[in-house]
């Protein structure tokens, strides 16, 4: 593709050099540049991409997009000046791949918790409705039945456009994707034309990156602020920031709620261990999900589907057949009547919600034993809060490791212990080794008890110093229960 054509829809300040250069690929990482590439320099957290312009040219880049021209200015390559290198990646990649998001309806889901659940359920629902569909989520990137394990919740802008181009080629009419706050802040979603956005909730997480809660809210607002007038912005008004999230959006605002007056409403009529009876828009529907937060997620799925033009009756019927997402309230029963729940709750709010859901279905005679850790190289302030939530909702708690990454796992457990008040000490035991922690929880349990294993959900590894060691909570608990696969 010709450089001039590529730059047509992009906010560029100036172009120097040959504009009719033929471009054969787009890269923002100098290590991946091949002859014929356009290299886009972006300023990151650890490095400044501008430093790698000479390396990119040496590897054959024929054009360079940057915020500042290199000194001395190289000859023989086109130089394009932009205000924001991060934004330019999405805009240029989108043009390079033929604006794939215009060829389908893309819906983004943002919020602290519930993104994977909603995006995945929308994907499954629309598959059931007979469409070709794409999915970009924490667990996997999917194009109909073709699945690739995900490396990030929302990958970099180039990868997103490459995935969307493949989706468009496969005839996808819809794409459901998670929009993490990191992605919104780093403009990974630049160049995507969204048909709609969904907000779930915002609670304590990622303050290591955003520093303050206000900045975290602002990052998520960026997504809604960029939606066009023709898009919808579906927001959960049970969250106190639900309306604030969409206040500066040009999109059509739609609200949903389990508690208040809203455009879409839902009520939990009955809760059992294997599901809930809901009333959605006054119609009763049996679902295989547990917990008020899941009622909220299913309502968002319903409201989005209806706003995407689907028949409401058909959508409700399909919703009753949907199954929970892997590692989200996944239950495993032992032969002697113990029940384990593997769940991806890795924030204080998620933990509180899951334990509340368990509380709503327990008889009161059994013990609830929770195994939980907190991630290394992530928000440290959530550690004591997670320990507190676990204790408040459980009879016994085992504090353990969850992806220590480059931190000392024993120190992370100590940080969690800081949330344990003296009167709770006899409820809590710390076992850094997660395998031993799960084994201990099972040993402490009696028939009828509920063991919540929180934080890792679908993950099948323990990340220690950048090395991912195989570890799977479901496998671990099955071994302890003597269940063979
Ligand atoms: C904290 C964070 O988000 N970091 C992301 C960021 O990295 P960075 O700012 O450190 O990049 P950098 O190393 O400073 O490099 C700057 C630039 O120089 C370039 N470079 C660098 C070296 C070189 O030799 N040549 C070169 O050209 C790089 O390609 C880059 O363009 O930009 C990179 C490229 O897009 C991302 O891969 C990287 O994600 C890292 C791997 C990460 O772990 N991110 C996590 C925290 C994350 O994104 N999580 C969210 C939310 C999860 C959730 O709660 O759901 C997610 O969406 O997954
Ligand atoms: N609507 C919700 N409100 C609060 N908690 C929820 C909600 N939905 C799910 N959860 C809890 O959060 C956990 C993670 O859910 P999910 O994977 O859908 O969230 P996510 O937003 O994709 O998380 P991540 O930021 O890691 O991508 C679940 O296992 C459950 O414990
Ligand atoms: N997307 C989240 C996932 C956290 C999952 C938990 N198991 C952990 O490693 O902290 C993050 O990267 O913060
Ligand atoms: Mg997710």
From TrEMBL:
Its EC number is 6.3.2.13. Transmembrane segments: none annotated. UDP-N-acetyl-alpha-D-muramoyl-L-alanyl-D-glutamate binds at residues 30, 152-154, 180, 186, 188. One of its GO terms (molecular function) is UDP-N-acetylmuramoylalanyl-D-glutamate-2,6-diaminopimelate ligase activity. Meso-2,6-diaminopimelate binds at residues 378, 402-405, 455, 459. Keywords: ATP-binding, Cell cycle, Cell division, Cell shape, Cell wall biogenesis/degradation, Cytoplasm, Ligase, Magnesium, Nucleotide-binding, Peptidoglycan synthesis. The modification N6-carboxylysine is found at residue 220. Residues 327-457 form the Mur ligase C-terminal domain. It is an enzyme of class 6 (ligase). One of its GO terms (biological process) is cell wall organization. It comes from the Bacteria. The keyword Nucleotide-binding applies. Its cofactor is Mg(2+). Residues 109-305 form the Mur ligase central domain. Carboxylation is probably crucial for Mg(2+) binding and, consequently, for the gamma-phosphate positioning of ATP. ATP binds at residues 111-117. One of its GO terms (cellular component) is cytoplasm. It holds the Pfam family Mur_ligase_C. Pathway: Cell wall biogenesis; peptidoglycan biosynthesis. A motif (Meso-diaminopimelate recognition motif) lies at residues 402-405. It is found in: Cytoplasm. InterPro entries: Mur-like_cat_sf (IPR036565), Mur_ligase_C (IPR004101), Mur_ligase_C_dom_sf (IPR036615), Mur_ligase_cen (IPR013221), Mur_ligase_N (IPR000713), MurE/MurF_N (IPR035911), UDP-N-AcMur-Glu-dNH2Pim_ligase (IPR005761). Belongs to the MurCDEF family. MurE subfamily. Catalyzes the addition of meso-diaminopimelic acid to the nucleotide precursor UDP-N-acetylmuramoyl-L-alanyl-D-glutamate (UMAG) in the biosynthesis of bacterial cell-wall peptidoglycan. This is UDP-N-acetylmuramoyl-L-alanyl-D-glutamate--2,6-diaminopimelate ligase. It comes from Mariniphaga anaerophila. The lineage of its organism: Bacteria, Pseudomonadati, Bacteroidota, Bacteroidia, Marinilabiliales. The gene is murE.
